[in-house]
Amino acid sequence: MNEWFDKIPVEEMIEWRRHIHQNPELSFKEYNTAAYVKEKLRSFGQIEIAEPTETSVLGILKGDFGGKTILLRADMDALPMQEESGLPYQSVVANAAHTCGHDTHTAMLLAAAKVLSGMKHQLHGTVKFIFQHAEEVNPGGAKSIVDSGLIDDVDAVIGLHIISNLDAGSINVHTEGPATTAADGFFLNIQGKGSHGSMPQKGIDPIIVGVQMINEFQTVISRYATPGEMAVLTVGEFKAGEAPNIISDKAYMSASVRTVNEETRQRIAQRIKDIVDKTCQIYGASYDLDYQFSYPSVINDKNLSELVMKSAKEVLGAEMVREVPIISASEDFAYYRQIAPISFVQLGGGTAADGCGFANHHPKFMIKEDSLISGVKTEVQSVLNFLK
After folding, report:
1. Known catalytic membership, residue 147
2. Closest Cα to residue 73, out of 152, 126, 128?
């Protein structure tokens, strides 16, 4: 066993996690959480503190020897929903809950920072710890942290995310290429012309216009994405009309678009815009289209991801480390690739057999707290191997 295993502050980490879990803060409002993180980092000693933004915290640990710089990332924001887990440390804040596991990310990174601060004399390089705000809301917090310039010297970035429905304590990595999808979407108002249902010739029916668009959207993926490449277009909202004998004057729809290839992403966006424009022209309607590009795809670096997997096997055993396919989630962790190679790692939080069967973002989301130890071990060992 590595001698530093005994230095992992397991009980404190659980205490930190439960405190943050019980007192969640929404995106861009993580003031108390950031203050709590700074307090803990100061108590460890050896770690300098910087503030890239109002509600994010950067810890800097300089080893006794020169070398490369690695960044470990945890996000801190909660979701705007009511928790229904029934846990004794359930959220006490109305309509705010850590149902995505960011509380665990923060606690694990604090624990890793405490362990590594005690190993300063062994480190050949610098470790930076970014406690990031606002992952859940576009444009996200990662981009502003990258733009701050405080992490320009970083040579690699590792981000760890807990996922329910994966074996507790397992490390799961998509080694090379897109690990997540880009998640975009659009919001569309169609302006027609209202009329009585008995006089359709006097109106412009926005429902007909919208239905024609939706039919055309079905060709976008089949004809504008490369076969075999992940791409999804879902119209999730379509609203119009209030009575059976009235032709409405307006309709509204919204949709999500997920892609992994940037060229395909742009091509699909343009095709959607063309369909909206041309269909409205044909029927004489007008429109207001808000097409929003959100987080790009997370592109994992092969060498860094293999280092993480090797490190995890060293501290957890090969049976707890798996190569996994791309997931159709999205993450603003993707922006860190602008400064250095990145690796996005999934930590198993427990399956239904562990009482943890509810997915991330579910009001009854739960994880096995023992799994956090695997996360800390993987983070610390990855740092040690990277800085060798």
Report:
1. no
2. 128
277 and 192 in one domain? yes
pLDDT of residue 328: 86
In whole angstroms, what is the distance from residue 360 CA to residue 97 CA? Answer: 11
Are 106 and 32 members of one domain? yes
Containing domain of residue 225, as a range?
Answer: 182-292
Q: What does residue 381 show for φ and ψ, rounded to 5 degrees?
A: -65, -35
Q: How does the average pLDDT of the chain come out, rounded? A: 97
The CATH number of whichever domain residue 218 belongs to comes to 3.30.70.360
Question: What is the rounded CA–CA span in Å between residue 81 and residue 99?
Answer: 8
Structure tokens at 340: 């250095």
Do the Cβ atoms of 67 and 126 come closer than 8 Å?
Answer: yes
Active-site residue among 25, 75, 83, 135? 135
Pick the catalytic residue: 25, 75, 77, 301? 77
Instruction: Lowest mean pLDDT of 82-91, 156-165, 351-360, name the range.
Output: 351-360
Q: Which of 241, 270, 292 is the last residue of a domain?
A: 292
77 belongs to the catalytic site: yes
Token pair recorded at residue 67:
């070398």
Does 9 share its domain with 80?
yes
